[in-house]
């Protein structure tokens, strides 16, 4: 009896062990996916995709975590260092270079199915490449345009949206003169994308972030002219008061309240205006030009982490996210420009004047460089822009400081 | 207070009895608290150890500790003008918030110590800011001081003052001043609570005696209230310094350290270094500097409370 029992026990244990061991054949592989929220709809959208994907792939279970943007960077850094990072993570493309350099990301060119890379608009996928590797996929792309309040322009006697910066300045003066707490044009001076707002002017004046000598272009003559372009508007009081205290949201709120004639922003602003600015009749035109047509292009990246043990499964889910049907749904939901070639011809983008202008400008988009320490360089620039806009230092002086800081970081990196 | 007089001797008596019974003293006590002590060391000690380690090594942005760097991280921090600027601003921030808090709290505590109709309601109102999270307070104030949509400007404009769209947070000095005022507002409840405790401990008989001797109320304030309240003010001062010195949410939410780093304090500087720039080594070095400063204040606090206890034992 005792022996039998022992034998049974041994067999039982062995079977259990064998089951556990070969468990991977039946058990699901879990893929943890972390996305950042562009809006309250982002989380549920990806949740829905995961459910569909899980139903079609019984051997994989995708779990979605969604976080607000401001928490993403800190959470990702903490999780990677603690070894608890997800398998797939969303991030700003400008953080990607740093993570890739530190070996936190997995190169995906070997994981992608043949032909998958060719479905992307090359500009946006190229931005995800560094060295000889592709470090992620462009989950969102945007370019910027000039939002103008049709009614205010009409009241100020302006027939069509300004095409040049000089015209924009004149228009801003006329709109601001309408009084009643209305401002001509918005200039951003704090928080996320302050440097981006400056790039609009920099690039359209023929400037560049990196000069031909491989050094900072922040203090080039074009950059100084570009800065003075905003300064003349600030000095003439045709911007909102307190530029150094205004974030992107502050400007957008003013425009949505019908208190601002013109503001430079991206396609996501359409969504905000649809909810909060129903009374504002607006149009979108290209960024005003001085010498060169340009706009600021930004992408966000979704990447597979090096620590992931289920990289092929993770890639399979990524390819699912990036099929035409799902991307189109996402684009319509959040208002981003198409990153897939197949999306670009959809009527939603081509026939809607509030989207088509962004599509047109896609070809002239310029991007921030992918330096691992770009955040620091941009922060140095932001600080100096603050000092310049508040009149504390001249454009030449402030930009020289910002360029010096960028060059010092570039030199340290080499 | 009869309650205190009654319990104190009983405690002494029971302590005496247990030692007579021959129970092991300090060693046994140590064994009893050992689990707690170990847990504390693990929970408090490990992060400190890790920060020290990171401050002395080259650390990648994902926390991978690379080669030993000696004091290079500290040297980099002290060579960064923004770090020094943040350090200066931390001193201004701490001195102004703590000093202002004490200046405001003493009169409030004196008033709340008086017996008047509705005192309980007044006390509750003073304590209210304590009940709201710091982050929420900061968010609300950011809206209040918003130039175009804020209620502050709306109120001022309604009073006929020229503040229709004054941008309060655009000017660094004004922004810092507002943050300091909010810092004071949220530090008052805690300070008033400590001072009220101090005031109730001053025996009424002292005032009666001085009144019989013909002392004016200002005199009894200077010669009775202030000296007897002083130890409590010291403790409120030191604890507030520790809290305010690395108070993060108000500044982070209202100005993010800007414009042009003018409202950055060490804690916001360290946060940016770590999570925006990925320079964990520099951030750890900055944290160590803060830790050293706070350690001094913690020791001062220990010393104060200890001498306080000793005085009470006399």
Automatic annotation (TrEMBL), chain A:
It comes from the Bacteria. Keywords: Periplasm, Signal, Transport. One of its GO terms (molecular function) is maltose binding. GO terms for cellular component: ATP-binding cassette (ABC) transporter complex, substrate-binding subunit-containing. GO terms for biological process: maltodextrin transmembrane transport; maltose transport. Residues 1-27 form the signal peptide. Pfam families: SBP_bac_1. Belongs to the bacterial solute-binding protein 1 family. PANTHER family: MALTOSE-BINDING PERIPLASMIC PROTEIN (PTHR30061), MALTOSE_MALTODEXTRIN-BINDING PERIPLASMIC PROTEIN (PTHR30061:SF50). This is Sugar ABC transporter substrate-binding protein. It comes from Aminobacter anthyllidis.
TrEMBL record, chain B:
GO terms for biological process: transmembrane transport. Residues 87-301 form the ABC transmembrane type-1 domain. It is a multi-pass membrane protein. Keywords: Cell membrane, Membrane, Transmembrane, Transmembrane helix, Transport. Pfam families: BPD_transp_1. The chain crosses the membrane at residues 21-49, 91-112, 124-144, 174-199, 220-245, 283-304. CDD domains: TM_PBP2. GO terms for cellular component: plasma membrane. It is found in: Cell membrane. Its main location: membrane. The keyword Cell membrane applies. InterPro entries: MetI-like, MetI-like_sf. PROSITE patterns: ABC_TM1. Belongs to the binding-protein-dependent transport system permease family. This is Sugar ABC transporter permease.
